[in-house]
Design brief:
With 294 residues, the protein is an all-alpha fold. It is 72% helix and 0% strand. The protein is built from 16 helices and no strands. This is Carbohydrate ABC transporter permease. Keywords: Cell membrane, Membrane, Transmembrane, Transmembrane helix, Transport. It comes from Paenibacillus sabuli. Pfam families: BPD_transp_1.
Amino acid sequence: MQLSPGWNAFSNATAALFSLLCVFPFLFVVLISFTDEKTLATNGYRLIPEKWSVGAYSYVFETGDMLLKSYGVTILITVVGTLLSLFMISLYSYAISRKSFKYRRFFSLFAVFTMLFNGGMIPTYIIVTQVLGLKDSLWALIWPLAMNAFYIMILRTFYMTSVPDAIVESGKIDGAGEFKIFYRLVLPLSLPGLATIGLFSTLGYWNDWFNALLYIDDPNKVPLQSMLMRIENSMSFIQQNSANSSISLEVMQSLPQDTARMAMVVLATLPIIFAYPFFQRYFVSGLTIGSVKE
């Protein structure tokens, strides 16, 4: 049924308004990060800053090479971790999606069990640091997030609904082995599902700070999120102990507070936005995983 021009215009306007509401909070954060701290404290938050300033970014970038190193560490663990996660999850999900796999029920229940129960923080810390010996290693930031049972079940459902058994059987008739069937026939059909899981994994690695708090002491191996958190904690410590500090009151008041926090949000969020175009082509199709198709 063809929509009338009036209804079509109303639908487009509603979609545009909804898109603006989704983007506006981030744009507002960007504007606040470029606002002068004293003006912000006096006049409060405004859509258009009364006085522009880059003081917040100057304060954050005073860490110099440490911030650039943290960016490099985060990019490295995000790229390596996402590729490793996709490799392991795709193989595990494919195996438990095939009816011919004898132990598919056991490994499916095993994945679901890990979603409900885990060993806890202390046993995990002992395994990572003492058994695996990954203390102060970048692998301590990669391996704990490499396997996600929820992503396994999502991709398993995608394989079962989007990869026909006839394709697998045709590969076996042609004499192909399981790995050849998987890489030549199944993976090309699974790009929407893999792109969806890849995007989730990328966001997980990029935003992770807790593992660095547990396993990383070397300042040269601290990822971005943990580095920004340390900068904010240092700033809060200086402000809370200003009465016992030799720093003058005027200098303390000039230190950015809210604007620095907003600048940290921008620095942590802006780079990951550029990852979306690489997944956008398949992401919408991936969101329909498990849907009924005609």
